[in-house]
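Quick note —
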Amino acid sequence: MKPQTLIFTLFGDYINNKGGTVSVRSLIKMMKPFGLSEQATRAAVSRLKQKGLLENVNSKGSYKLSEEGLVKLTSGVRRVYFKTKHPWDKKWRIIVYNIPESKRELRDKIRKELRWLGFGMLAQSTWISPNPIEDYVNNMLNESWKDVRDSVHFFISTYLGDPKALVNLCSDIKGIENAYKTFIEKWKNVKDEMSEEESFVMKIRLVHEYRKFLHIDPDLPADLLP
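Predicted structure written out below.
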């Protein structure tokens, strides 16, 4: 398990429900059952802080999610725990960008965040989603994408062709289906009786693995499912 993504899972599934603040000492204890050392935990916290996803709360080594981190977490929590299938409004959310090579690192970050939000890549630098996630996009434009705000363009439009064919151009639907089947097969026989620590570790491992689907599943409305 990657330390940085595990910390994010812990915030989403546990820490944010307990006030949203955690000391490095407590985080080290939580990470230990997953085989991660104190050094690995401290390094992961430092990198998340450098990325702007964590911020200091006080001088005693406590941290909370930054505004940018909270936006990302909220989107993930919504898709993991509160999936609701609303009737599709037949509209597509489209993002087109023209970010210079000098800002390639930020451009790569935006691509990852678009996948996290459920966008699929239709063409180079053109991403689409059928979901009403304008608020999340606007938050990103005003937070983590603000340095290239003038190079990122957001549209809402309709499509005159077959919408399911459009989905297949952007996502490997069959591959996603097979990945879900593999996940279910792996976790369907979890034992009923566990200690408190075993239960904690098992739940976090399950959620952590499920979160990987947020990077590949476009979270399609029912009208666009196969």
